[in-house]
């Protein structure tokens, strides 16, 4: 486990009187609603970032909004941290339990209340699986656009908490662009409604603020999402390149030509081979890189765009372009991409998945630098990523049984994320900060910006009980990490350090 | 002037020692940078909502970011309110001066720093006019999408502050969807950068929070906007209807069919006649309502959509459909729509422009109810609005010289906004709250929600000096307005009342 990112003592100083809290919660959460015994809590000790494990103090499994309110109110009064969890697929430890906190498991909030085809909205519980929304909307010719690779399992509440993306978010936006309203339980147990069906709401825009807030501002108990009409037609093509940089230039070129594909993904040679061996997607295993590009819309629009994309790819040196012949081949092209992470898991004992974003025009440069950094750290890196929106997922291969390799992987990962920030990008695109990238936040943000985040967090949760130790580093942590931007020798404000 | 919306005593209790402040500011703002004499301040006494007038205590006209920082810092130390102003075209009094405050006029921040065609972004000063951005981008085949009717005059900083919309925002989004990053001076004089070129940023989403915050969270000193490629082609059609409700149904039908037009506007009989008399747009003056619909994209896409829209309009009872023959006729159709407000100004001594939004499916019902409410209040209402996104602009005609008519217009306006909230809409779509709709915010929001807004405002501006008395009502004001949602007899929190 990377040593620098575990909970710090200052994040865990909660003085919990557990017996009266259990007594209060037993009255609120009958039967299996409160889990106290260790074997039951063990099931919640980690999320998708399984290198981090932590037993929660207690687990609550509420079934009603009133139970959520009463549970949160009891924790607030007892001064006990609350970590909300959906399906637990977070890749950054967002749902990692707090050792002195209650884990609020929202799995029983799994109802789809309403699919309204005319208004094109669905009103759903936070524990509903992402894919289940599209399945419920399909009879009306509608679907929910954001599609993280984990969509079969991940919950929509977690999607909001992490502002999840996916293969199609280049064209159809992130979770924040596809959610209209939230019902939220605040840390004092009140319910507020945030957002509306209108294009814009008066008052401060709290809807976007909630997205990507990683469970630190409130507990989401209901979500209203936009539904889109299924595209009339689509085409998927695979373009081969003799080197990774040419592929990077082609991506920037397509978007610069005014085309926003439904999806535009890139895989390098190692990723192609791993995916091909795993799912037999029909990829060009001779290529140094492939682009998979989906175009959707009306027949005429897709035909127009297909011509323009083929011209652009050829101009940027594509050695071959293969258009999927039918739905089955389209599905195979995407299956290979979506299975790339487990495919890489088959060829290396361990891998460390990064999630930086960069401006598209920097793609070729950054891919070359990643290759140089990998060589310097003597570790192989596999690249498979959302090229269209510049969201990289370099997978660093290592063997966790060799402790020097874990250190090297961490160091290489940190170098890659700093490279992303240097070229004008960010340390996370869609996986969130969680515990994993909390130190890199010190690289991304200035002192004043981190102070601002803490002030807003306090405006929702003045005891700092919601998911403490995640997403926003203390200035103290940044100073220790040695990456704080200290202006004119000014020290971080002491009042924030104590948070 | 509507009596209920002027500054309340509790909003104006600032104890200002003006002489030392002037001395400090003279050192910061040389020459004409500080305006103290009354004649000079008079030029800033109102914005586009000209029924409200207020002389500011002082006017600052900074030329550099450092001057903004020093000015804000001086006001912060002196406990003096700061109201930021761009071009002053706000229709809700957002830039109305505070009687004991400094008016921060950003007109000298009018440089376009950078237009980057490959990255499709422009980096600009907040005082740059909206239309000037598209003019600077035109040589590259690009433009800035949001186009409020005031675009020739309004500034981009004000567009962010009000989250401005426009005719094309149905398809291309509001200001918030077209801005990538902001440089902001906080009330303590620090600079923070909010947002980035990446699709998503780590940390809390403050970029959306700044949009529509009406100058209450910080002073924007630089803006990075997205640029879009100019559409390859476009078509504009005018459809006539024998009654307003049929037009409303047709709007809902077009969007329900999966078509998002570039623009979809509606005008009723009185608006048609007024605009026709004024600019000779070529409108069908026999119609009870017309829809103006613009479709843009590739030739093939536009042809496809045009067929679908014509089918839908016919199915919903359009009595005539006229497609503009050339660019000149397209421009005339839009000129009539954009000139509709001044055109109505020619037929009535005064008018009161409302800005509610409603779900599209409620259009026909709400238009009928507005007509009934108008009859009940014995005032004529003219409707011209962004039909596609359900953003109504009922113009209530009255004669301000007859005081009972002003009261009646206010009462009718309030009834219309409450009707919007009742059907699931909002009290403002794109004009902002300002001072004009601050009481209606009490109808829109619950106590807990308004408290949350105040807490977030305090996280940015703990002395509540930025644009006080605007946008977010005190709970005390709501209680007096008689529209506070009081739950279980609970009184509003006293600590908020004092804000």
Automatic annotation (TrEMBL), chains A, B:
Task: Please report the stretch or stretches of sequence annotated as the FAD-binding PCMH-type domain.
Answer: 52-230
User: Can you name this protein?
Assistant: FAD-binding PCMH-type domain-containing protein
Pfam name, any one: FAD-oxidase_C
Q: Does the keyword Oxidoreductase apply?
A: yes
Named from the GO MF annotations, one term is: FAD binding
Q: Which cofactor does it need?
A: FAD
InterPro entries attached here? FAD-bd_oxidored_4_C, FAD-bd_PCMH, FAD-bd_PCMH-like_sf, FAD-bd_PCMH_sub2, FAD-linked_Oxase-like_C, FAD-linked_OxidoTrans_Type4, Oxid_FAD_bind_N, Vanillyl_alc_oxidase_C-sub2
Q: Which UniProt keywords apply?
A: FAD, Flavoprotein, Oxidoreductase
């Amino acid at each position: 486990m990377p040593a620098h990112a575990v909970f710090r003592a200052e994040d865990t100083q909660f003085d919990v009187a557990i017996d009266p809290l259990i007594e209060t919660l037993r009255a609120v959460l009958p039967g299996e609603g409160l889990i106290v015994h260790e074997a039951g809590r063990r099931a919640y000790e980690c999320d998708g970032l399984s290198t981090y494990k932590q037993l929660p103090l207690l687990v609550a499994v509420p079934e009603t909004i009133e139970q959520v309110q009463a549970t949160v109110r009891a924790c607030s009064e007892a001064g006990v941290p609350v970590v909300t969890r959906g399906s637990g697929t977070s890749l950054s430890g967002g749902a990692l339990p707090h050792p002195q906190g209650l884990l609020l498991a929202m799995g029983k909030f799994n109802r789809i209340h309403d699919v309204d085809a005319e208004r094109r909205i669905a009103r759903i519980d936070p524990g509903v699986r992402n894919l289940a929304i599209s399945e419920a909307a399909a009879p009306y010719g509608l679907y929910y656009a954001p599609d993280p690779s984990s969509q079969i399992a991940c919950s929509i509440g977690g999607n909001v908490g992490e502002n999840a993306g996916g293969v199609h978010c280049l064209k159809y936006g992130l979770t924040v662009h596809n959610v209209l309203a939230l019902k939220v339980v605040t840390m004092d147990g009140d319910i507020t409604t945030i957002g509306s069906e209108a294009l814009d709401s008066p008052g401060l825009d709290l809807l976007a603020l909630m997205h990507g807030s990683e469970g630190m501002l409130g507990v989401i108990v209901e979500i209203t999402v936009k539904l889109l009409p299924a595209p009339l037609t689509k085409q998927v093509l695979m373009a081969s390149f003799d080197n990774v940089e040419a592929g990077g230039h082609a991506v920037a070129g397509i978007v610069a030509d005014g085309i926003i594909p439904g999806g535009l993904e890139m895989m390098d040679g190692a990723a192609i081979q791993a995916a091909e061996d795993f799912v037999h997607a029909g990829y060009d295993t001779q290529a140094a890189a492939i682009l998979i590009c989906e175009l959707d819309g009306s027949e005429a629009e897709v035909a127009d765009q297909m011509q323009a994309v083929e011209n652009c790819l050829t101009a940027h040196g594509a050695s071959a372009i293969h258009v999927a012949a039918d739905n089955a081949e389209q599905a195979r092209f995407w299956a290979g991409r979506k299975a790339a992470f487990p495919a890489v898991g088959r060829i290396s004992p361990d891998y460390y998945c990064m999630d930086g974003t960069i401006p598209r025009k920097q793609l070729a440069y950054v891919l070359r630098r990643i290759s140089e950094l990998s060589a310097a750290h003597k570790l192989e890196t596999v690249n498979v990523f959302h090229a269209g929106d510049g969201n990289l997922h370099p997978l660093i291969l290592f063997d966790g049984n060799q402790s020097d390799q874990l250190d090297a992987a961490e160091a290489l990962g940190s170098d890659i994320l700093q490279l992303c920030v240097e070229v004008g990008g960010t340390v996370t695109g869609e996986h969130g900060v969680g515990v994993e990238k909390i130190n890199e936040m010190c690289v991304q943000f200035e002192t004043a910006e981190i102070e601002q985040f803490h002030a807003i967090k306090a405006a929702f949760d003045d005891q700092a009980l919601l998911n403490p130790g995640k997403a926003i580093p203390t200035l103290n942590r940044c100073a220790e990490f040695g990456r704080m931007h200290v202006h004119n020798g000014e020290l971080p404000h002491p009042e924030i350090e104590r948070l």
